Amino acid sequence: MTRPRAECGARRVPPALPVALLAVAALVAVGGCGASEGRWAREAMAERAAAAGAARGFNSADVMFLQMMVVHNGQGVELARLARGREVREEVGTLAAAIAVTQEAETAAMAGRLRDWGQPPTAPPDEHAAHGGMPETAAREIASVADAAPADFERTFLNMMIAHQDDAAQLARAEAIAGLHPEIRELAGRIDASRTAQVERMLELLGG
Amino acid sequence: MYVRPKAATGAAALMLGSLLAVIPTTPAQAHGSMSNPPSRAYVCKTEGPDNPKSAACKAAVAAGGTQAFYDWHEVSRLDAGGRHREIIPDGQLCGAGRDKYRGLNLARTDWPATRVSPGPLTITYHATAPHANSNFEFYITKPGWNPAQPLRWSDLEHIRTFNNQNPGTYTNWTINLPQRSGRALIYSIWQRVVGSEEAFYTCSDVDFGGGSNPSPTPTPTVTPTVTPTPTPTVTPTPTPTSQPGGTWAPGTAYAAGVRVTYGGATYQCRQAHTSLTGWEPPNVPALWQRL
C-alpha cells in the first residue's frame, strides 16, 4: 500500500522551474497524485493484465518489469551516449558504445512485447512502489555526467553507469522472483548477467 | 520523483527532453533510511552529495560516486526475502552488497557519529514512500568492535525486532542500548512482508564516549572492496549462458567483422566490443549478425 499524499508532498515544484517544466510538472501532479485515479489506473491495469495474462502466460510482474526496464534502458542509452566524443580511454568508449546499441535493441524488443500484450508502454505513476520498484536514472544524473569537467568525466561517467546498471540488475532479480513468462524471465536473467559483468568491468576500469 | 531545484535551473533546456521521457514512471519511490541516529547514507545526503563536508562522506563519494547519496533511501535489495546473510557478504553490510553503494562500506573511524548512552534510545526511520506491513530489525556491534575493520555479520548483536509495522513518513521506536564504550554501529534491516521481497539496510555510527577509540584509521585504502560481484543467488531460468560450444568466449575483445561460432551457428561482429556473459551472440543482434 502506498500513501499518495506523502508522495505528493515530496513532489513540490521548486519556484525556479521554467514555465514549460511547470506545465509538465503540473500535469504529472494531476495524473500522479490523485489517489483515486492512481488506484483506479492500477486496478484497471491489474485487471487487464490478469485477464490478458492468464491466457497468454504472463503476470503483472512481467508487465511491470518490461515497463520499468523500457524507461531505465532508455536512460542508460542516453547516459552511454554521453561518452561519445569525450576524453575517455578507448576501452571505456567501446564499452559505452556497445551498451548503447545493445540496450537500444533490447528496449525496442521490450516495447514491442508490451504492445503485443496490449499493455501500456509505461506504468501508472504510483505503480512501481507497490512492486518494490527502483527509480530510473533521473535527468539530474544525466546532466551531472554531461556537465562533468573533462578531467572528471571518465570517473563520473563510470560511477554513474555502475549505479545505473546495478539498479537494472536489481530490477531483473525482482522479475526472476515474481515474473511468470519464461521468455521474460530469461531476458531478466540475461539483463542481470550482462549488467553484473559490465559493473565488474567498470570497477576494474576505475581501479586501473 | 524529486525535481531538484538545482538541476531544474541548471540544465533545464537540456533536460526537458529526458525529463519528459522520465516523468511517467518516476514518482513513487518506495523507501527510506534511518534519520536518527542518521545512517551513513542519510548523513552524506544531508551534507550534500556533490559537496560533502566530512572526510568520511568525501571519501565515500570519491570511492563510489554521488548517485548512492541521491538514492539514499534505496540501499535495498529487491530480492532479499529475508535472506540477508546469504545475499550480502561480510564487509558489504552497509552498502547492501551492491556496488552502487560501495562507498558506504568504507571502514573508517571518522564517520560522523551520534552521541548515545546505554539505556533507552528513541530512534527514527524516515520513509519517503512507506510500505504497510514490514518488519524492522535492529542490531548493534558487539563490544570491542573495531570500526577500522570491515563490518561482518558476526560483529552484530540483536537488539530488537518490530514485526508487522505500518511505518509512516517518520516512525519512532524505542530500543534499549546495551553497555558499550567508544564507537559502535547500529544496523537496521527493514524487510517488506507483503507484495515484495524488498529489504532496506542502514548503518548508523554512534559514539558512547569514553571509548578506547581505536587508533586513528590508517586511512583505509580508498580502493573500494572490488569484491567480485556476488553471484546473484537467484539464478533465473538458465539462458544459454552455459557452454553450448563454439569459438565465442566472454572477456574477449572482438573487432567489427570478426567471425565466431556459437551454439552451432556462425556470427559476424557488427560493432567492436569486449564480450561478456549476457552478451552471447544470439542474445545481442546489435553486436552480432548471424550468418
UniProtKB/TrEMBL annotation, chain B:
Taxonomic placement: Bacteria, Bacillati, Actinomycetota, Actinomycetes, Streptosporangiales
List all Pro residues biased stretches. Answer: 215-241
Keyword terms of this UniProt record: Hydrolase, Signal
Q: Where would one find the signal peptide in this protein?
A: 1-30
Q: Which InterPro entries match?
A: CBM5/12, CBM_sf_5/12, Cellulose/chitin-bd_N, GlcNAc_Chitin_IntDeg, Ig_E-set
| Gene3D superfamilies with a match to the protein in the record | Carbohydrate-binding module superfamily 5/12, chitin-binding protein cbp21
Q: Does the keyword Hydrolase apply?
A: yes
Q: Which organism is it from?
A: Planomonospora parontospora
Provide GO CC annotations from the record.
extracellular region
Q: Does the keyword Coiled coil apply?
A: no
Pfam families this protein is in? CBM_5_12, LPMO_10
Descriptive protein name: Chitin-binding type-3 domain-containing protein
Per UniProt, residues of the Chitin-binding type-3 domain are 245-291
Q: Which GO terms describe its molecular function?
A: carbohydrate binding; hydrolase activity, hydrolyzing O-glycosyl compounds
Q: Where is this region: Disordered?
A: 211-248
Q: Which GO terms fall under biological process for this protein?
A: carbohydrate metabolic process
Query: What PANTHER family does this protein's entry cite?
Result: CHITIN-BINDING TYPE-4 DOMAIN-CONTAINING PROTEIN (PTHR34823:SF1), GLCNAC-BINDING PROTEIN A (PTHR34823)
